Amino acid sequence: MTGDTPPAGQALPPRIDTGVPHAARMWNYWLGGKDYYAVDREAGDQFSLLFPDIVHIARLSRHLIARIVRHMVDEAGVRQFLDIGTGLPTVDNTHEVAQRADPACRVVYVDNDPLVLSHARALLVGTPEGATDYVDADLRDPDKIIAAAAKTLDLSRPVTLMLMGIVGYVTDEEGAPTIVARLMDGLPSGSYLAMWDGVNVVTGEALEKAQEEHNQGPGVPYNLRTREEFTAFFDGLELVEPGIVSLPLWRPDPDPLADLAEVDALVGVARKP
């Protein structure tokens, strides 16, 4: 939905502010989707003008999700996923990749944006053998998330916690490391943390300027962490090879034409002992 009008026949969900850019809709715009408003397009264009690589990172992140989910199902043997900060549905969503590998996979999506939840309930339909559910909750409320997820997931068996580009919206002062740790505490041994987030290790001043300008606007600020700050989220967990790396370098598909240059986003996947 480009502009300020919902798709034909679909009412505007409650609590939608079409005058303020929203991260999920901006990412949808960068991914070439259609579920955004004019304000999201304008904010996305302004950011990408200063930092063009954001569009590349957005697309890399979608391919990354598919690689992580396939690894979890095919190699780690995990059949349950808790995907927080889902964003708007696009191609190869978590449950689609997981249930192609094993139709019995169970997936719980978590977001607190009413537009995301409205689309998710309409479009993210899983297999009869598995389960797909949606929780309206904020990342800052890990206890609520775990309690709600337990209605669909078997928390006596391993779960992959997926935090794909979402933790940057929570500062360390707000307790981001503690929030992630509490989520992992609610999951059993053998579970995994799969997380990527933005850093500034390649671009430098141009990215810093773009992020500062965005953070001064009406949208939700995003916090770029250092490599050391990002790595600290995995303390006490067992990192899966190749460890903490740039998005395109985590178990890349065997494509000779793939662009494996580093970008300003890091990813790690680690097992809870």
Structure description:
- The protein is 36% helix and 15% strand.
- The protein has 9 helices and 8 strands.
- It has helices at 23-30, 38-50, 53-76, 94-101, 114-123, 142-149, 176-185, 205-215, 227-231, and strands at 80-84, 106-111, 131-136, 160-164, 192-198, 238-239, 245-246, 265-271.
- Strands 1, 2, 3, 4, 5, 6, 7 and 8 form an 8-stranded mixed beta sheet that branches.
- The longest helix is centred in the first third of the chain and has 24 residues, at 53-76.
- The radius of gyration is 18 Å and the shape is globular.
- The termini are far apart.
Head-to-tail CA distance between termini: 44 Å
Structural class: alpha/beta
Taking pLDDT < 50 over at least 5 consecutive residues as the criterion, the unreliable ranges are 1-13
- DSSP helix count? 9
Please compute the radius of gyration using only Cα atoms: 18 Å
Q: Given the C-alpha coordinates, what overall shape results?
A: globular
Strand content bin: 5-15%
* DSSP strand count: 8
Main sheet attributes: strand count, strand direction, barrel closure:
8 strands, mixed
Blueprint (SSEs and pairs):
Elements: H1 23-30, H2 38-50, H3 53-76, E1 80-84, H4 94-101, E2 106-111, H5 114-123, E3 131-136, H6 142-149, E4 160-164, H7 176-185, E5 192-198, H8 205-215, H9 227-231, E6 238-239, E7 245-246, E8 265-271
Parallel strand pairs: 1-2, 1-4, 2-3, 4-5
Antiparallel strand pairs: 5-8, 6-8, 7-8
Helix pairs in contact: 1-2, 2-8, 3-4, 6-7
